[in-house]
Design brief:
It is built from 5 helices and 10 strands. By secondary structure, it is of the alpha+beta class. Helix 1 crosses helix 2. Strand 7 and strand 8 form a beta hairpin. About 30% of the residues lie in helices and about 25% in strands. The chain has 2 domains: about 45 residues; about 180 residues, no CATH class. The strands form 2 sheets. The protein has an 8-stranded antiparallel beta sheet with strand order 1-2-3-4-10-9-8-7, covered by helices on one side.
């Protein structure tokens, strides 16, 4: 013990008890910092793995599957409501995104939508050849190539929902794609020009400015094929969840 005390005095000087106390405090601080770093890293790693898992969930969805498959991937729907022509609409909710699925009378999914809820969750929709079509929460409408049709709707005189349809031919497996800004998803519509609602005639400059600012938070894939497939989707259709379906979430 005498040797140890003498050694401590040589290293740090002063009374050995005082020096040893500071060593203990220093070691405890280092251990506490390391423990905090490890805890933070575990938390970040868990969150990243969780987000990757939900991104994989969104990527596993496709038209033609039975609704039971959607339930096996996403869990139980929070809303099931009758749609047109004896079909059903299902709404699924999790912390990262919403899913809307519309089935035919046999329970097959003929249309589904993915709506991101968070700025750190950006599902990527690709063509069958790997070309990026949209990144939810990031891509604006001005990035879309040759949209076929525009639609919008709102409440109390204000436009809250905006969508454009696209047809990519073979690249898109001959299906119809709809890209939208849903009011329940990430972000919001920029100021809607008055020309949008006046006699249905939009000013070209206003439209281009709007499309440059508005960010897509919802993509929809429909089995309706051909460049005019969107004509079979009712014009009042809102892609993604309606407010009353997810209000409590």
């Amino acid at each position: 013990m005498a040797f140890n005390i003498s050694l401590v005095k040589q290293i740090i000087g002063g009374p050995s008890d005082f020096g040893i106390g500071w060593i203990v405090i220093l070691l405890a601080s280092v251990i506490a910092i390391l423990a905090t770093i490890v805890t933070c890293w575990k938390w970040i790693s868990t969150r990243l793995k969780e987000k990757d898992r939900f991104l994989q969930m969104a990527a596993q969805l496709d038209t033609g599957a039975h609704i039971s498959y959607f339930i096996s991937v996403l869990g139980n729907p929070v809303s099931i409501s009758p749609n047109e022509a004896a079909t059903q609409e299902y709404i699924f909710v999790n912390k990262y995104f919403y899913v809307q699925a519309v089935t035919n009378p046999d329970g097959g999914v003929s249309l589904f939508s993915v709506t991101t809820r968070r700025k750190d969750f950006k599902p990527v929709l690709k063509s069958q050849f790997g070309q990026v079509l949209v990144v939810l929460g990031e891509t604006t409408f001005s990035r879309l190539a040759n949209p076929k049709k525009r639609r919008f709707s709102g409440d109390h005189g204000g436009i809250t929902f905006y969508s454009e349809s696209c047809y990519f031919g073979y690249d898109g497996s001959y299906r119809m794609y709809f890209f939208s800004t849903n009011p329940n998803g990430l972000g919001s519509l920029p100021m809607v020009p008055a020309s949008f609602v006046e006699m249905g005639e939009e000013d070209a400059a206003d439209l281009e400015r709007f499309r440059t600012e508005a960010i897509i938070n919802t993509y929809t894939i429909s089995t309706l094929s051909g460049p005019n497939g969107d004509e079979n989707v009712p014009s009042h259709t809102i892609f993604g969840p309606k407010t009353y379906q997810v209000r409590v979430f």
